[in-house]
Amino acid sequence: MLELGIKRIARTILHQGGCLGGVRWWNRHGIRILMYHDFPSSPELPEMLAQQCKHMQEHYTLVSLDDIGRHVRQGTPLPPNALAVTIDDGNRDFLDNGYPIFEAHKIPVAVFLVSGFLDGQFWLWWDK
Questions:
Q1: What is the DSSP letter of 121?
Q2: pTM for the structure as a whole
């Protein structure tokens, strides 16, 4: 319980105190991978996702997983505040609801498809 209170206080300080820029600067040479799951049809989704895309564009350098792999193989540094976006379930709702928004913002995404699910051999554990 105390841990939750401490996390809540830290989150408030970071967000309202304007400290996130300092945290981004401190970790600017790291690799960030933002993972998404599910893009349900809802009236709020397009605006909410568009706001997230704008935030990513304003505060990060968007890279693909291919970019990350190339930099690792070549031993060259990534740009500061590198961020890659992955879609980790490959459901149809991404194509219908998420892809158009990421495409409009020119954000590269890597979509992981689960062949056993696509072949109808099993359900993803979080959808059971």
A1: S
A2: 0.77
Dihedral (CA of 61, 103, 18, 83) sign = negative
Torsion angles phi and psi, residue 111, rounded to 5: -105, 125
pLDDT digits (tens, 9 = 90+) for 95-104: 999 999 999 9
| Bridging pattern class, strands 82-87 and 109-111 | parallel
CA distances from 37 to 32, 42, 75, 101 (A): 17, 15, 31, 15
Q: Rounded CA gap, 108 and 60, in Å?
A: 13
pLDDT per position as a tens digit, 8-39? 777 777 667 666 676 667 677 888 999 998 89
Length of the chain (residues): 128
